[in-house]
Automatic annotation (TrEMBL):
Pathway: Cell wall biogenesis; peptidoglycan biosynthesis. InterPro entries: Mur-like_cat_sf (IPR036565), Mur_ligase_C (IPR004101), Mur_ligase_C_dom_sf (IPR036615), Mur_ligase_cen (IPR013221), MurD (IPR005762). Its EC number is 6.3.2.9. The keyword Cell division applies. It catalyses: UDP-N-acetyl-alpha-D-muramoyl-L-alanine + D-glutamate + ATP = UDP-N-acetyl-alpha-D-muramoyl-L-alanyl-D-glutamate + ADP + phosphate + H(+). It comes from the Bacteria. ATP binds at G118, S119, N120, G121, K122, T123, T124. The gene is murD. GO terms for cellular component: cytoplasm. Residues 312-425 form the Mur ligase C-terminal domain. It comes from Virgibacillus pantothenticus. This is UDP-N-acetylmuramoylalanine--D-glutamate ligase. Residues 116-290 form the Mur ligase central domain.
Length: 449
């Protein structure tokens, strides 16, 4: 295993286990560090906890006493733990640095990182970039917010391997020296304000992806997003914009017939099979990141001629009795649902609802032209019902959950309708994850026949 070269801390508190905390603790113990673990829900009988104890970890479980900070040099925090947590707040008060596991992964990966973030499109862009490199016969691994712990992959990364990381704002807010070779900023809009508290805090978390980059690094950014154009001016890295509109940029762009990188034609637009106009931005960002990493045009073309999308992101589930079912469970905010609605010209029955974070849904109003019916569930169902009434949608059904929503949508549907799960909300009021919600949708669809 590679050594942590720029990590001068000897006594580390790992706050919150889950997958990322467990991986970080294991790596730090293997590096000879003193590790104290604090987790409220874990017990000494859990297999991962028992293993870490055998490796020499000190355990403080079941509560979060302030004494866990005594003698600590740095805190490695689970991304899901907010910064108003008493332990985190006290650590900052004492001048103890608080980081996330991504910081450790960044040091182990030796500058072979392509980091991808944005309010929407991260998973699609991460997957596309990874596959483009694979099809170009480059050695590549993928990790991060996509569901694979970055540290576990980074510790065994070979010298000639690329590491593509999907990065959330929760992960990026806790970095110190983290510096990807290629940083990708897809878009930014107000999200996760319950965690970050302010719009400015959220933006700064995202911009951490390039804050440590130097002149020999690259920042790929959306030239159609004014916030990102302004933010990119702060970056020292070489700037590589992408745009679906502007053909005069020195980056990835497109016209009516083809997509290009700089002045080089990559492929014809009609050969791209990925559904949805919004995905052109993800494609262009992926092309830029892949080309900068040595991908071939042939490798890029192979991917874009076959790739139909990632699971839970405008995923085509099937055609049942002339109805087209799409799973867009990853649409946890209004912008994602706007883009899903814009992808279709057919009549849509929209399945939506979920955790109420206090926001409204009026920004969806201009995108409801093709929506013939709404089937609603979860905490936000009443708000979404008011939206449907405002949009003059005549058929609005309230249901218990995603599973019952599928049956209700099918009953009111006709041939050639699109039945679209695109909730515009997080899943946590009824489901543990958006993946679980999407899987329940898929299962319910399959039970119709």
């Amino acid at each position: 295993m590679k050594k942590l070269k720029n990590f001068p801390y000897e006594h580390i508190l790992v706050l919150g286990l889950a997958k990322s905390g467990t991986a970080a603790a294991a790596v730090l113990l293997e590096q000879g560090k003193r590790v104290r673990i604090n987790d409220q829900k874990a017990t000494e009988f859990d297999s991962n906890v028992a293993k870490l104890k055998e490796m020499g970890a000190e355990l403080i479980l079941g509560s979060h006493p302030i004494r866990v900070l005594d003698g600590i040099d740095i805190v490695v925090k689970n991304p899901g733990i907010s910064y108003d947590n008493p332990i985190v707040a006290e650590a900052e008060k004492r001048g103890i640095a608080v980081i996330t596991e991504i910081e450790i992964a960044g040091q182990l990966a030796n500058r072979h990182i392509i980091g991808i973030t944005g309010s929407n499109g991260k998973t699609t862009t991460t997957t596309l970039t990874t596959e483009m490199l694979k099809q170009s016969e480059k050695r590549v691994k993928v990790a991060g917010n996509i569901g694979i712990v970055a540290t576990e992959v980074a510790k065994d990364l070979e010298q000639d391997e690329h590491l593509v990381l999907e990065l959330s704002s929760f992960q990026l807010v806790g970095v110190d020296q983290f510096k990807p070779k290629i940083a990708v900023l897809l878009n930014i809009f107000e999200a996760h304000l319950d965690y970050h508290k302010t719009w400015e805090n959220y933006k700064q978390a995202k911009y951490n992806i390039f804050k440590n980059q130097m002149d020999d690094d690259y920042l790929v950014y959306n030239a159609e997003d004014e916030s990102l154009v302004e933010a990119a001016k702060q970056a020292r890295a070489q700037k590589v914009p992408f745009s679906v509109k502007n053909r005069q940029i020195d980056g990835a762009w497109m016209d009516e017939t083809a997509i290009y990188f700089k002045q080089e034609k990559i492929m014809e637009r009609h050969d791209i099979v990925l559904l949805g106009e919004h995905n052109y931005e993800n494609i262009l960002a992926s092309v830029a990141a892949a080309k900068l990493s040595g991908a071939t045009n042939e490798g890029i073309r192979k991917v874009l001629a076959m790739f139909t999308g990632v699971k839970h992101r405008l995923q085509f589930v099937g055609n049942y009795h002339g109805r087209l079912f799409y799973n867009d469970s990853k649409a946890t905010n209004c912008l994602a649902t706007q883009k899903a609605l814009s992808a279709f010209e057919q009549p849509i029955i929209l399945l939506a609802g979920g955790l109420d974070r206090g926001n409204g849904f009026d920004e969806l109003l201009p995108y409801l032209d093709h929506v013939k019916a709404m089937v609603l569930f979860g905490e936000t169902a009443p708000k979404l019902k008011q939206l449907g009434i405002k949009a003059n949608i005549s058929t609005i059904r309230d249901t218990e959950n995603v599973q019952t929503a599928v049956q209700a949508a099918y009953e009111i549907s006709e041939q050639n309708d699109v039945i679209l799960l695109s909730p515009a909300c997080a899943s946590w009021d009824q489901y543990r994850t958006f993946e679980e919600r999407g899987d329940m949708f898929i299962q319910a669809v399959h039970t119709l026949v």
